[in-house]
Structure formats: C-alpha cells, structure tokens
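ok so I'm stuck.
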Amino acid sequence: MQMKAALMYGPNDIRVEMTEKPACPEDGLILKIMAVGLCGSDIRNLTSDSRKGKYPFIYGHEIVGCVDETGPLQTKYHKGQRLFLFPGTYCMECDACITGHSENCENEHVAKLAGTGGFAQYIAVGGEKIHYGGIYEIPEDVSYEAASLGEPLTSVFACLENIKVGYPDTLVIIGAGPIGDFMAQIARIRGAQRIIMIDINQKRLEMAKQFGVDEIINSQETDPIEAVKKLTGGKGADKVISATPVNATQAQSIHMVRKGGLVVFFGGVPKGSLTELDCNLIHYNNIWIKGHFGASYDQSKRAFQLAIAKNFPSDKFITHILPLDQINEGIQLTRTGEAIKVVLHPWD
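replied:
not stuck anymore, here's the structure
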C-alpha cells in the first residue's frame, strides 16, 4: 500500500509524491498522521545538504495522529486512539539520564527510536519507543493542531524553567520567530515583568507584541546593545536568550545582560563556526553563560499539557494550516516571517 509523503531529494528539493506505507511492527503500531508542525530545524535541514547525499528522506517531527493499526504483540494502545509523539526517547539508565539530564541520553540507539518521518500520511512506531515512552494521549476535545504545539513548546518550557524565569525578571529574547514568541508567552505566564524582543524583521516584531512582549528592537535600524541599556537604565537585563542560529547574536548577548546576570545560547549555530566573546566582560561582570538543548520527559509532558490547555492561545501561534502538498509554500511563509507557525495536513 502507498501513502503520500514529502520526500527530500536534496537542498530545497522537496517533492510530494507517493511512496510505500510503512509496515506495522509486530510489537508496535501505525499512526495515521492528522497534523504535523513545520519546525525551524526542519526548514534548516530541508534547505541544506543535511543528509550528506543520502536521499530521499522524510523529515517532520511535530507529529500527532490516531492509531490506524496495531501489531499482534502491542497491548498498550488501540485503534482510533489519538496520540502525540514526542520525538525524544531516553533510556533512563545511562549517567546523563540518571543525573537528571535525560535530554543528553548517551544511548544512541534509544535516542533514535523516534524523531522524524512526519511529513507523510503514516508513520510506524515500534515497540521499543512505546516501551521507553514519550507518547501522550490527546483528549477528544483538543484539536490535532493545538496538540502539535506540544513539541516546539517543550524545549522552550524546559529552558525557562531551568533558568528560573519569573518575577521580577527583565528578559531579553533575541529572535522573534516561533520559538521567540513561545518564549515570550511562557515567560509572561511565569511572571516575567518586562520582556524585550530583538529581531531584524519588523513584521515579526509587531506580531510578537500579542504574546506579552513589552518592547521591540529592530536591530537593523538601531544598535540593540545600546537600546537594551537605555531601556534598563544602563544596567542591562536580568536574563538574555539568544534564540537565533547566528553567532553574532551570541556575541551581542553578553553586552545586554546586567552584572551577575545570565545569558542562554538557545539557537544552534552552523557546525564548526566559532563565536568571539569578550571574556574580560564575562569575567569582571560575573556573567553566567548557559547552553540549552532539549527537555526531560517530565518537562515534555508538562509542555504538552500546556499546549492543550484551554487558556493557552494556540490559535494565535498557528497562523497557517496548509495541505502537505504546499510544504514548500509553508517553508517560504515561515522564512519571510509572514507565518508564525505552519501546521501541515497530510490528508487535505
């Protein structure tokens, strides 16, 4: 049997065509994908030689759907059940997992049990993934689109919790993309008193205001360091998060934080690139720098619960719902800043 999927044949070469539907594992299930979010990392992978020539390949990891088929040895889930598939999988036995950093699970086999393949009508979920966890049931009164936000919210939720954003923080977020908007919304929920957003795209900055942003700075029009200093009476912000894939924003971030403040490098930069930092400034101003990636199982579950909460404004984040056939249009809408979050429907 065949299914529709968006196959990547190379950088910027994504073709929606028919391919083989995966076979149902004896101890697993087949998930009929009802919605899949288009993530910034997906776009980065789709527009670069991410597979080093190993094509075709199916990306997509913000996956929600319903169980279409179960294997004879699978007893946990049943046909028709609505599920959210968290792409992270952790062994909970290695040193990283035991010490509370399961997002850095050292068991590569387990870590790769789930993660991609969502730009399609079906995906196979094996028994090992089911055993290790990271699959959450979607209530009947929650839309698939809202539930799909559980994945992109996860790392943001974990980051803000780990650095204890709250009252009376002044927070600077560099990057007004979907992740930056999620950060602003959750920071406001957590009690941050002032949120400053920086970007080069004015349209994105204006859209960010609806998520609790107090001040916006267009760094193409003004010096963002001087602007932050002016807004904070010369002191700098309590916490600064560089949420872009750009080395320059990391370098700038340490000049925006107050003495004794905290800087987070959230966005991954190009592999092999180096960021030049003023180490004397870091040293004499007692600046703490933290890298952030991923989330624990506990944090992923609570982020999913937030995404499906009735008072969470999922409709504001999801600006475009498109059929899978229009994935290339969705990529362009996201890259230009016209879209905040694009969700694709494989069955439309």
